[in-house]
Automatic annotation (TrEMBL):
It is a multi-pass membrane protein. InterPro entries: MFS, MFS_trans_sf. GO terms for molecular function: transmembrane transporter activity. The chain crosses the membrane at residues 39-56, 63-86, 92-114, 159-178, 212-234, 246-264, 276-293, 299-321, 342-364, 370-389. The keyword Membrane applies. One of its GO terms (cellular component) is plasma membrane. This is MFS transporter. Pfam families: MFS_1 (PF07690). It is found in: Cell membrane. SUPFAM superfamilies: MFS general substrate transporter (SSF103473). It comes from Streptomyces lydicus. Keywords: Cell membrane, Membrane, Transmembrane, Transmembrane helix.
Length: 403
């Protein structure tokens, strides 16, 4: 599972660079069209994010992950095929992003619920740190590789590399020996789906910790998606970097993700899970606005790396803490629904952020919009200061428990 997740993250990182480059360099898409492409990959969380959690709780989660990997592999092969046939356009690229995003919804929801069955409660913190650390390393390698592949072989042909990574992920997941215990057959009345979705929503809404973390995730992802949707356009058209330059620069800054995964356990040991979460989500990303000062000289590029790395450290370290908390805090039989509800709200703001940034970037310019979106990243974490989290050293390990 570790290898499969890392391969999938590598492929997703390649896509994050190559797909916008296909739109910008090959199809000459506008700023808004590039943002729309980014939004399309996250729209499925708004449409099927909640029922996906119920379906995942009903189905074998390993099978769901296998099907998701297979669908993603086929979709990314279709991009170069369409180009070779002279049929590739922005509309078809949007369709691929939309369907791949749908597959990602099912994979991520199943993956989150499947992991606690493989890793024991005492090892979940270490397991999450390793998974997030390797995922960050894969994203760094994938980002750099995406830019280099686009420069050497062309951005369209780079999609074949992405397809291959999802094939590797499929083969790795297929080799997992662990099998979930069969759930007893349950006769479900009409409307059971909506009731189960409602149960997940109520669990999140009524719990102060789940509610606060979900609202924070929704706010921060709005701004994260906004600046990320403009990043390739900004670096290529405003700063003047080549395709490979974009990949290398983002990869170097993204190394902060590995740093975040390496230091999170030390931070948790020293400060506690609650205080470490506040440190990584509020303090570290305060350097993010440096990205908007990027220029083509060495000093300007260094500012980008520092700002981008600070966001990467905060996001990865925060995700490790939040993932461990949710997996230990929520009962296994509702974990899929709780995960889907949280992801629905967290990821549901991603397409909104991308569309908002695209519209503002078209009207007011890319760099001013980048300032706005980047400044919102650390500011959104102030939501956590209005929650019970700020009063405790550690996050609770079960409902009703605090430390």
């Amino acid at each position: 599972m570790w290898c499969g997740e890392s391969a999938g993250k590598f492929g997703a990182a390649v896509t994050g660079v190559v797909l916008p480059l296909v739109a910008v360099s090959v199809l000459h898409a506008t700023t808004f069209e590039v943002s729309l492409l980014n939004a399309a990959s996250w729209v499925p969380w708004l449409v099927i994010g909640l029922p996906a959690g119920v379906w995942v709780d009903r189905l074998p989660r390993r099978t769901v992950m296998l099907c998701s990997d297979a669908v993603s592999c086929v979709l990314f092969v279709c991009v170069p095929l369409a180009y070779w046939l002279g049929a590739l356009d922005v509309g078809r690229l949007l369709l691929v992003a939309l369907l791949a995003g749908t597959a990602a919804v099912f994979f991520q929801t199943a993956y989150t619920a499947y992991l606690p069955g493989i890793v024991g409660p005492g090892d979940q913190a270490e397991g999450n740190a390793k998974l997030h650390g390797s995922a960050s390393a894969a994203q760094i390698a994938g980002t750099g590789a995406g830019g280099l592949i686009a420069q050497v072989a062309g951005s369209v042909n780079g999609m074949l590399t992405n397809a291959a990574t999802f094939l590797i992920s499929f083969l790795c997941v297929a080799r997992i020996r662990y099998r979930e215990p069969s759930a007893p057959p349950v006769e479900r009345a009409r409307g059971a789906l909506f009731r189960e979705v409602g149960e997940g929503v109520r669990l999140v809404a009524r719990d102060p910790y789940l509610r606060s973390l979900t609202l924070f995730g929704a706010a921060s992802n709005l701004f994260l998606a906004g600046y990320q949707s403009l990043l390739v356009v900004f670096l290529v058209r405003d700063v003047g970097l080549t395709d490979s330059g974009v990949g290398v620069l983002v990869a170097v800054g993204g190394a902060g993700g590995v740093v975040g995964a390496l230091v999170v356990r030390r931070g948790v040991t020293r400060f506690g899970t609650a205080r470490a979460l506040l440190l990584f989500e509020i303090g570290v990303p305060a350097l993010a606005p440096l990205m908007a000062l990027t220029s083509r000289d060495a000093a300007g590029l260094a500012l980008f790396v520092i700002g981008y790395a600070s966001v990467s450290v905060g996001v990865v370290a925060g995700n490790v803490i939040k993932a461990g908390f949710q997996q230990g805090y929520c009962p296994a039989d509702v974990l899929g629904r709780v995960s889907a509800c949280s992801s629905f709200l967290n990821c549901g703001t991603l397409p909104l952020g991308a569309l908002l940034a695209g519209a503002l970037g078209t009207w007011f310019g890319v760099r001013p919009t980048l300032w706005l979106m980047i400044a919102g990243i650390p500011l959104s974490a102030l939501i956590l200061l209005c929650s019970p989290i700020r009063r405790h050293r550690d996050l609770p390990t079960r409902a009703g428990a605090t430390a």
